[in-house]
Design brief:
Blueprint lengths: L1 H26 L29 E6 L4 E6 H12 L6 H21 L11 E2 L10 H8 L3 H14 L3 E5 L2 E2 L4 E2 L35 E7 H8 L5 H5 L4 E6 L5 E6 L2 E4 H8 L6 E6 L2 E7 L7 E2 H9 L4 H8 L4 E4 L7
Parallel strand pairs: 1-3, 6-13
Antiparallel strand pairs: 1-2, 4-5, 4-14, 7-12, 8-9, 9-10, 11-12
Helix pairs in contact: 2-3, 2-5, 3-5, 3-9, 3-10
Length: 338
């Protein structure tokens, strides 16, 4: 009897310890194997060009071939960004250019007005619309720099794939140009059409552009012929041979009087084939020295301004929202069926 009591006293503590563990094992939820630490799978630095089967096709009229080529949207945008902006520009600037280029073509397709393109096409591959370079043209232009330049452009395009710029849920008129004179221009002061998101904004970064300031020289005879005016001898000698009548918000020439006629800054620029409507004139004997600031019409996004903003740490979204006031970013399929 003493032996049984002794065994009981030895077994009881053991049972008290093991029983709860057994109950936990049998009645707790199933325990799987110990999970391994999750390792994040990173995408390649340069993602491969991938487009969904539903990607919007773009019908590009190839001017040299005199034929229409149908391209997936992002393939087309790659060719446009490659042609319209230097691959050496900051990545965020290239992304901003991709957003503007994609918005331009989506707007055209949505409006469905292709009267300015040969039958079957939606867009030209020239400056009349957007310049486009195919892969062969890019290889020819870039030579042994093709690989890194093409990958850089692709990275910018695919990082923004499918995204466009909208105002009140409609694709904007995403105009862009090379270089400003320090300010962009109100749309109605160049095209006489007020567009709420195309307002004059400061762009001080453009001073870094090689096209920021240039001087052209022409004879008074050339000037008279191109403008259809006649400079009087008196006007040529007393220093009052022209007069700036008005300036725009973006500090360009609004109107100018010369040789008895008045021209808008845009008319003057186009008749004399000047870089910009921001200019000054200097008459020296029978020669006219015309100094321009900026390169392009000045409305919308300045490409050199975009690059300067990117260098200062601004994102592509911040860049486009600076140059296009009050806009939003949306997936294009919400605006136009894919």
């Amino acid at each position: 009897m003493k032996r049984y009591l002794l065994m009981w006293f030895i077994a009881l503590p053991i049972l008290l310890v093991l029983m709860p563990a057994a109950l936990v094992f049998w009645f707790s939820p199933e325990i799987g194997p110990v999970s391994q630490p999750t390792v994040a799978v990173t995408e390649p630095a340069i993602p491969a060009m991938k487009e969904s089967a539903s990607s919007m096709p773009v019908k590009v009229y190839r001017t040299e071939k005199k034929a229409v080529e149908t391209l997936p949207l992002e393939t087309y945008i790659t060719g446009v960004v490659a042609a319209e902006m230097p691959a050496e520009f900051e990545l965020e600037a290239l992304k901003a250019q991709a957003l503007a280029a994609r918005t331009y073509i989506v707007r055209r397709v949505k409006e469905g007005k292709f009267d300015d393109v040969p039958s079957g096409g939606q867009v030209l591959d020239t400056v009349q619309h957007q310049v486009y370079m195919d892969e062969h043209q890019r290889r020819e232009r870039w030579g042994d720099q093709y690989e890194w330049k093409n990958k850089r452009i692709q990275q910018a395009v695919m990082a923004t794939a499918g995204i466009i710029l909208t105002y009140q849920n409609e694709p904007i008129d995403a105009t862009f140009f090379s270089t400003s004179n320090g300010f962009t221009e109100n749309s109605d002061e160049y095209w006489e059409k007020p567009i709420p998101y195309l307002k004059s904004v400061a762009s001080p970064w453009d001073i870094q552009s090689p096209r920021y300031e240039e001087t052209v020289v022409m004879s008074t005879g050339e000037l008279e012929k191109n403008l259809g005016v006649k400079l009087t001898q008196e006007a040529s000698t007393n220093g009052s041979w022209y007069r700036i009548e008005s300036r725009t918000t973006g500090n360009r020439v609004g109107t100018i009087s010369i040789g008895g006629k008045e021209f808008t800054g845009r008319e003057f620029r186009e008749k004399l084939n000047l870089n910009s409507s921001s200019f000054t004139l200097d008459l020296r004997g029978n020669q006219v020295f015309i100094t321009t600031k900026g390169y392009g019409h000045g409305v919308g996004m300045s490409q050199w301004g975009a690059n300067g903003m990117a260098k200062s740490g601004k994102s592509a979204e911040q860049i486009v929202k600076h140059f296009y006031q009050g806009i939003s970013l949306q997936v294009y399929s919400r605006v136009i069926p894919a």
